[in-house]
Amino acid sequence: MIPLVLGPLSEAVGIVFSWPAIGLLALGLVFGVALGAIPGIGSVIGMAITLPLTIPLSGAEALIFLTAIYSGAMYGSSVSAILINVPGTPAAAASIFDGYPMTQQGKARNALGISASASALGGTTTMVALFVVTPVVTSIVLLFRTHHIFLVTILGILMIAVIAAQGSTVKGILAGAFGLLLMTVGTAPTTPTPRFTFDTYLLLNGLSFIAILLGVFAIAEMIRIVDIEGGTADAVDAVGGSITDGVRTTLSNKLLMLRSAFVGMGIGSMPGAGGAVSNFISYAIEAERGDDPDSYGTGNPRGLIAAESSNNGTVAGSLIPVLSFGIPGSPSTAILLGAFIVHGIDPGPTLFENSLDLIYALIVSLIVSNGLILLVGLFVIAPYGYRISFVDTKYIVPVIVVLASLGTVSLRSNPVDLLTLLAFGVVGLLMKRHGYSIIALVLGAVLGTLSERTLNRSLILSDGSLGIFVGDPLAVGIVALIVAVLLAPVARRPLSRLRS
């Protein structure tokens, strides 16, 4: 294990609090929060468009600026999820389930207070842990091979399908399977074979899961509220609550916050996984463990704490494979890896040997970023951000539709993505009406490409044998968890009878 060397740590603190590094950190954080709050934009686009601008900066300054955008966007994406039921990025999708109902119940400020405190405390805790656990977690991550990652994706989808099934496990699993099926459109990942493209080149790259996500959440919600006169809040008095009570709620659930943050950190350390996956799984774990599972999705603060603690915890986890192996765990860290390369920094074991002060500077800057998130969230967003609920729907609807459309098109400049956005707005509305799990659909779409890619690689490595998925203790353990999740609804009823 790499010891915490006081010399490099003091140098790191000096780097972070020197000028212009501290100014770049604050600028990047504010920029990230703003981008995260805009549906469909998020950290990836923000980091991508600012990467060329960091060339005149030193390596440390560039990395501090980009990671501040990353961390800020993780928090910012929850603001629109809580206030208007539209996640800024997939990393805040699970925050909708209890955050938006709290807003509808007149507790918007409670929800925003929970979001700011849980994000900041969860992110800070995992960043402090990152100082000492990187070598240990690196060893654990190395145990996960291609077939293990495939099994983890299936486990995540089934957990959400079962827990968020709204009374019907079959409907939940069907929704998740539909999400997986959608991602088979386009060119196969291992062979140049077009599938379900209807002989048009526009579908060769498949459907955009961002367009699907924004469709079922943003467009579906806009269709629902378009006939509502006035704001989305029922009345001025309805948007109440207390920021202080929200923070107290987070602090009174410290174990939940810590558990969810470390779940996010662990999942974020797996290449290919990210905030969307950790957000869902942390929420699913809490909903399954909770004393009143039916209350989740109706405004339970514990569900919001679980979701918000995990997404900023994911930031710490996603740095582990980048710093240790030069392997990006998410699109955002892929851009961060590009910044390493642009500035002539080689990530990997030699980085720990030769540039420990740079690693510590990166971690210290993210701890400072989480402190700023707490200040911005509690003293700017929470007191004043809820007022968006009073904006008349005749202004909200066109603005959200335009932002969702721009966010969708800006990623690939493909007109099919606009059609996907509109189509899944209708699909999302119909799924809500008929009790199908939207979240299972979204997670299936988010993990679809990763699932298929890892499945194909696993079968290639095993010469087509399915035995690879039960060929080692770790794989058997994950399969056992999958079986347990599938049997949970069957076992829940007799257990509840025994308790009564």
Short description:
The protein contains 20 helices and 2 strands. The protein is mostly helical.
Distance between the termini: 50 Å
Q: Strand order within the widest sheet?
A: 1-2
What are the secondary-structure elements, in order, as H or E? HHHHHHHHEEHHHHHHHHHHHH
Helix share of residues?
over 70%
Instruction: Provide the low-confidence segments as ranges.
Output: 233-238
Radius of gyration from the CA trace? 22 Å
Strand content: under 5%
The number of strands is 2
Largest sheet: 2 strands, antiparallel
**Average pLDDT figure:** 77
Number of helical segments? 20
Please provide a written account of the structure:
By secondary structure, the protein is an all-alpha fold. The chain has one domain. It is 72% helix and 1% strand. It is built from 20 helices and two strands. The chain has helices at residues 6-16, 21-37, 42-50, 59-84, 95-104, 108-143, 146-163, 169-182, 209-225, 243-251, 254-268, 275-289, 301-325, 331-342, 349-354, 356-384, 393-412, 415-433, 438-461, 473-499; strands at residues 186-187, 194-195. Strands 1-2 form a two-stranded antiparallel ribbon. The longest helix has 36 residues, at 108-143.
Topology summary:
Blueprint (H helix, E strand, L loop, with lengths): L5 H11 L4 H17 L4 H9 L8 H26 L10 H10 L3 H36 L2 H18 L5 H14 L3 E2 L6 E2 L13 H17 L17 H9 L2 H15 L6 H15 L11 H25 L5 H12 L6 H6 L1 H29 L8 H20 L2 H19 L4 H24 L11 H27 L1
Antiparallel strand pairs: 1-2
Helix pairs in contact: 1-16, 2-4, 2-16, 3-4, 3-14, 4-5, 4-6, 4-13, 4-14, 4-16, 5-6, 5-13, 6-10, 6-11, 6-13, 6-16, 7-8, 7-12, 7-19, 7-20, 8-19, 9-17, 9-18, 9-19, 11-12, 11-13, 12-13, 17-18
